[in-house]
Amino acid sequence: MRKTLTALALALAAATPAMAELVVPNLSYRTGPYAPGGIPYADGFNDYFTLLNERDGGIGGEKVATPECETAYNTEKGVECYEATKGSGALVYNPLSTGITYQLIPKVSADKIPLYTPGYGRTSAANGKVFEWVFNYPANYWDGASVAIKYLLDQNGGDLSGKKIALVYHNSAYGKEPIRTLTELSKKHGYTLVEIPVDHPGQEQKSQWLQIRRDKPDYVLMWGWGVMNAVAIQEAANIKYPMENFIGIWWSGSENDVLPAGDGANGYKSLAMHGTGMDYPVYADLKQYVYDTGKASGAGDQVGSVLYSRGMYAALVISEAIRKAQELAGASGINAAQLRDGFEALEITEERMAELGLPNFGQPFKASCEDHGGPGAALIQQWDATAKKWSLITGFIAPDDEVLVPLVMEDSAAFAAENSIAERCN
């Protein structure tokens, strides 16, 4: 272990430019069964910071370094990467893994380094009174579960009583996140929830889809990742399950998930945290300063895809938090504690998104001491297999806070009690 950490630390030092003052480690995974999701996210994340460096000279005059550390979506490796990089001046971590996130929450809290987990991680970290160092805006898993149910309510005249909804989920902390929410919502709306776990990595799902063919649920929701998604969509097509009744969370709604099934994926739906595609002004600047100059991350073949867009969006939010932290500190060279203040005081308006070249891309939000989770709204997108394109079929749908807020308060209070954390913001 000690040799591994030393090697990682030396690699980080070699990869970090001497002039860089702002270090944002990229805990990426370009290998293993989840690489098809990790690669585009890492590329979008890196390319956005490269754009800021090349076009603007960094943020507030400070260049940004994004040294990568390969986790292979493995929790132990993710923790090793954190330990190896935290002493480099690391300002924030965005590990793209719920398992790694759960392990890092106590570590970042002790080390006083922000953890940014947009759309993943521990949902109750939205309660800033308990989770001082964790931020998961603009939406989280419980929001996604609620939005999916609200969409289905809309499709059924406001009544889901007597309906059967199956949840096909990755049998991990990530996949289990929505179960409590969907259970509580079933009590409110009268549907039956059927839980169908899929073991890592999800390449074998015959028995799960035979169960779905036998039970005939009215709708199937999916909390999958990596190869699990593509296999599930193919199996659904094989049993001729109606794709318009199959809805994935935003981590089950990329091009990688649907293209392998060909025409069989037509009509499949997923939630979306943001827009996608390249019809945004920011791409002209990315082309000029990043792609055409040979500075693109990776092979450059993921540009404009859903997960590339999500990595870019995460980088955008982090960069805006850095700007806010610089403003609050009155200095361009900030530390991790000052960046935490920037995350907590951050507001991103639609006007600001337009200034950044991404109009109508993501929902506006404003953080506070109490609220680290944002508004939680999400869109529904649908796959057109002929055009090989996702199309948004709804606007932003707000979650059911009447159900979600008590769940967040209950779970965060339990965490606070277990860890002797006194609530703040009082």
In short:
This protein is α/β, with parallel strands linked by helices and 426 residues long.
How would you explain this protein's 3D organization?
The chain is of the alpha/beta class. It folds into two domains: 14-139 and 276-375, Rossmann fold; 141-272, Response regulator (Rossmann fold). Helix content is 43%, strand content 13%. The chain has helices at residues 2-15, 35-56, 75-85, 98-111, 141-155, 173-176, 179-189, 206-215, 227-238, 255-258, 282-291, 306-329, 336-344, 350-355, 401-418; strands at 22-23, 26-28, 64-65, 68-70, 115-116, 134-135, 164-170, 192-198, 219-223, 246-248, 269-272, 347-348, 365-366, 379-384, 389-392. Strands 8-7-9-10-11-14-15 form a seven-stranded mixed sheet. Helix 9 links the parallel strand 9 (219-223) and strand 10 (246-248). It is globular. Mean pLDDT is 95; it is low at 1-19.
How many helix segments? Answer: 15
Question: Which bin fits the share of residues in helices?
Answer: 40-55%
Strand content: 5-15%
Strand order of the largest sheet: 8-7-9-10-11-14-15
From the 3D coordinates, which CATH architecture of the largest domain would you assign? Answer: 3-Layer(aba) Sandwich
Please identify the top-level CATH class of the largest domain: Alpha Beta
Got a strand count?
A: 15
In angstroms, what separates the terminal alpha carbons?
A: 42 Å
H/E series? HEEHEEHHEEHEHHEHEHEHEHHHEHEEEH
Low-confidence stretches: 1-19
The largest sheet is: 7 strands, mixed
Q: Name the structural class.
A: alpha/beta
Radius of gyration: 21 Å
CATH superfamily annotation of the largest domain: Response regulator
CATH topology of the largest domain: Rossmann fold
Residue-averaged pLDDT, rounded?
Answer: 95
The tally of structural domains comes to 2
- Shape call: globular
